[in-house]
Specification:
Blueprint lengths: L3 E4 L5 E2 L5 E2 L1 H12 L4 E10 L3 E10 L4 E10 L17 H11 L38 E6 L11 E7 L2 E8 L7 H7 L3 H9 L6 H15 L5 H29 L3 H22 L19 H25 L3 H7 L7 H7 L3 H6 L6 H4 L21 H27 L18 E8 L4 E8 L5 E7 L2 H11 L8 H8 L9
Parallel strand pairs: 3-6
Antiparallel strand pairs: 1-6, 2-10, 4-5, 5-6, 7-8, 8-9, 10-11, 11-12
Helix pairs in contact: 4-5, 5-6, 6-7, 6-13, 6-15, 7-8, 8-13
């Protein structure tokens, strides 16, 4: 047996049941699986072990809805070089780069063997952000444009290095890793579930609900806990977060092309959305709403009625706004055939979420690895566009807002016919020893994967987080090739990727 096979929200797995393969066999088995349609890597990382390092691979099969887990081990005295998976499947580059940076393991054949995050405890501290090996293009007509790392707005730092021929972008390299946030380390070292919840809420502030849901589900998987009412409430909160962010991005895209009517209308609707979340839990971004094994803010009929009314109003008005946006010649002239990323490119780089679906790659955990009420109560059909340009990414957003509004109202109407139940959160419950738990959540950006490992006494010995931005930043680089540099802002906003979700 090469893999342990499970499904999303099917509990945890004993570390003893996960196969440990020689690297050569691991390499061949992963390559074989990666060659199958619908299979991709959700996480791949190293963990210090008694003898050296243990490397865990989490793969997802979209067709069977299964999760494939395997691992390989490197002794301190082993060779430090192993054949690269990236050489065959470029989507693996981010994982191998992180392993090299953190642990000093080299993967000959990796064509993009550059530092990823510059963690404070990286293996080679001589490699710093100040001597990052930026890609360069030689030529008398080629010039560089450097943007950042200090941003003109009040957001996280990131460097964008453009290689240009006149106004045309030949290549864009995006370099993050300026903050050294240490979120994963803090998650591992914190003894309090409440503190870990607060850390999860700050992984990416615009995905508070999604990341906190992923965290609490890793705990609940370890203790084989599930509750349909909690799953329903979290789904509603997740879809409210999706609506709010898609509204904000639609407005921002209108701003970038000078369509002020669309921007003002979307901002007004976003205010209704986030104020609805505030009405629910006291915070516009859903902080304090998601907690393990329960919630302090259960739905009640009066609240459900108010959410239904607000969501219906958002849906009606946003549908009108979108008809105006997508019938404006000035908007369409900037959106259409701008920043195209093909389906094949998205597949090769491991693209996920709404950006991948805008390029025709139907990758959506709500369908491929469902959990809770997605597993039968709500039938989800992913929103997919084919053109892969700014127009397609905006269309996916607009259609998902309407779709999410319908899901929320359907679930809340069903809730009104039920007897409300209250489940109080439980913190700091003892966890089983030597187990691994995987949690998958489809946030508004895309695929979120959290992995927790426990030690001999049930203590948390490792915590691994993957935000969808890890994959999709490279899609932005592909999108702007051949465009004028003035087209960068609208393309950047069409992805709206997270700096802090990347810099963990």
């Amino acid at each position: 047996m090469s893999f342990f096979v499970t499904k999303n929200r099917c509990g945890s797995v004993s570390l003893a049941e996960i196969p440990v393969l020689p690297y050569a066999r691991f390499h061949d088995e992963v390559l074989r699986r990666m060659g199958e349609p619908g299979f991709h890597c959700a996480n791949y990382f190293g963990v210090p072990s008694g003898r050296g390092l243990m490397f865990y691979f989490i793969g997802l099969d979209d067709a069977s809805h299964e999760i494939f887990i395997t691992r390989w081990e490197s002794d301190y005295y082993d060779e430090e070089s192993y054949p690269s998976l990236t050489a065959r499947y470029p989507a693996m580059h981010c994982f191998e780069r992180e392993i090299t940076e953190n642990h000093g393991i080299r993967f000959p054949g990796n064509p993009y063997a550059k530092p990823l995050r510059f963690a404070h405890d990286r293996a080679d501290t001589s490699r710093t952000i100040n001597n990052y090996p930026f890609y360069t293009i030689e030529g008398r007509s080629v010039h560089e444009v450097n943007v950042g790392p200090i941003h003109a707005g009040i957001i996280e730092p990131g460097a964008f290095r453009f290689q240009c021929n006149g106004e045309e972008i030949l290549h864009l390299e995006v370099v993050l890793g300026y903050q050294h946030r240490g979120v994963e380390r803090l998650m591992r070292e914190s003894a309090s579930d409440l503190r870990r919840c607060l850390l999860a809420e700050g992984i990416a502030g615009d995905s508070t609900v999604a990341h906190t849901t992923a965290y609490v589900q890793t705990l609940e998987n370890l203790l084989e806990f599930s509750d349909r009412g909690l799953d329903r409430d979290r789904l509603i909160a997740l879809e409210m977060e999706r609506i709010a962010m898609h509204l904000a991005d639609t407005g921002a895209l209108c701003t970038d092309v000078g369509y002020q009517l669309g921007q003002v209308a979307c901002e007004a609707l976003r205010t209704i959305a986030i104020n609805t979340t505030q009405l629910w839990c006291g915070n516009r971004f859903g902080r304090s709403l998601i907690r393990p094994f329960g919630t302090h803010y259960p739905l009640i009929p009066e609240l459900a009625v108010q959410i239904i009314d607000n969501v219906k109003e958002i849906r009606r008005r946003y549908d009108e706004v979108c008809r105006d946006v997508f019938s404006s010649p000035s908007v369409l002239a900037r959106f259409e055939e701008c920043g195209t990323v093909t389906r094949q490119q998205m597949f090769r780089i491991g693209g996920v979420g709404m950006a991948a679906r805008a390029s025709g790659l139907s990758r959506d955990l709500r369908t491929t690895h469902p959990w809770g009420v997605w597993d039968g109560t709500v039938e989800h059909a992913p929103v997919v566009e084919e053109s892969g340009d700014v127009q397609a990414r905006t269309m996916v957003r607009s259609r998902e807002v309407l779709q999410s509004a319908d899901y929320i109202t359907k679930l809340l109407y069903a809730f009104l016919d039920e007897e409300p139940s209250v489940c109080e959160p439980e913190l700091d419950r003892a966890l089983p020893a030597e187990m691994l738990s995987v949690s998958l959540v489809e946030g508004w950006r895309g695929e979120i994967c959290h992995v927790a490992l426990t030690g001999e006494s049930g203590e948390l010995i490792h915590y691994k987080i993957k935000d969808p931005s890890l994959h999709n930043w490279y899609a932005l680089s592909l999108a702007v090739r051949g465009l004028g540099i003035s087209d960068f802002p609208v393309n950047n906003k069409s992805f709206n990727l997270s700096y802090c979700g990347f810099d963990l």
